[in-house]
Design goal:
By secondary structure, the chain is an alpha/beta fold. It contains ten helices and eight strands. Helix 4 (75-82) packs across helix 5 (105-122) and helix 9 (224-235) packs across helix 10.
């Protein structure tokens, strides 16, 4: 079985046909799905989704692109939003995106830290987005993990080998998306080969980043089998080994039995 550790089931391309999307995922051995929050509006849909489907869990978070709209967001607000929501098992997606800079860098950092504070308060993982921000992301995570039990998942990892090593050294989990299947991702594949299996998860980030051979089309959780296949080639192990280990890592990180 497989765990899709990061998908956006509230987005129209998937939400409009969710029953079929879930059935196709189950047919392809996707046992767990984690649908990720990016705005307050998306959280409303996520709550209804996780209540309807037994094998789907959710998160609460404000994407770094949206930070400028939530300048006053704090950990207390986050905690209040998710109280009594037992299937909300992570905080995020949060983090830093200095590639697009849709929100001011300082605001992104402030909101990121508020998410981390809520994560620590609840003892659930924070799901981190980092693009063109390796130095700042690492410095924040290293500082916040010091003398704490902060649980971290770097989603859709496309960073440098140095960044990967630093993340592993501070006990972060790293999630790999369909990008690793792309023809021009040989450098990423080399980096992934050096990441211990104990730190790896898999994701689709659907409806984005469909793996080969579906690149350019709308992505969905069932397509994760192609990422698993690529990882098995990179690691020179069986698909079953990748499936078993990444799913066990998912269950361990998110405290699922």
């Amino acid at each position: 079985m497989i765990a899709d550790s990061h998908c956006h089931l509230d987005y129209p391309a998937l939400y409009s046909q969710l029953d079929d999307v879930v059935k196709r995922a189950e047919f392809n051995q996707v046992k767990y799905l984690l649908t990720i929050c990016t705005t307050l509006e998306s959280f409303k849909k996520i709550k209804s989704i996780v209540n309807k489907y037994k094998n789907i869990y959710g998160t609460f978070g404000i994407h770094p692109h949206e930070s400028k709209k939530y300048k006053n967001l704090n950990s207390k607000f986050i905690l209040n939003e998710i109280k009594n929501c037992k299937k909300i098992i992570g905080i995020g997606e949060t983090g830093l995106d200095f590639y697009y800079n849709h929100s001011d860098k300082d605001i992104q950092k402030k909101i990121f830290l508020e998410h981390i504070s809520a994560s620590l308060e609840l003892n659930i993982p924070v799901i981190v987005h980092s693009r063109n921000a390796e130095k700042d992301t690492y410095e924040i995570l290293k500082s916040e993990k010091k003398n704490s039990k902060l649980k971290v998942l770097l989603h859709c990892f496309t960073g440098s080998s140095d960044f990967a090593k630093k993340l592993v050294d501070i006990d972060c989990y790293i999630s790999i998306s369909g990008i690793v299947t792309f023809d021009k991702s040989s450098k990423l594949a080399d980096t992934v080969s050096s990441i211990p299996i104990e730190n790896l998860l898999v994701e689709t980030d659907s409806p984005y980043l469909a793996p080969m051979p579906f690149r350019g089309k709308s992505n969905e959780p069932s397509y994760i089998v192609h990422t698993v296949e690529k990882l098995s080639q990179i690691k020179n192990v069986t698909k079953e080994y990748i499936m078993s280990n990444t799913t066990n890592n998912f269950k361990k990180l998110f405290s699922l039995t």
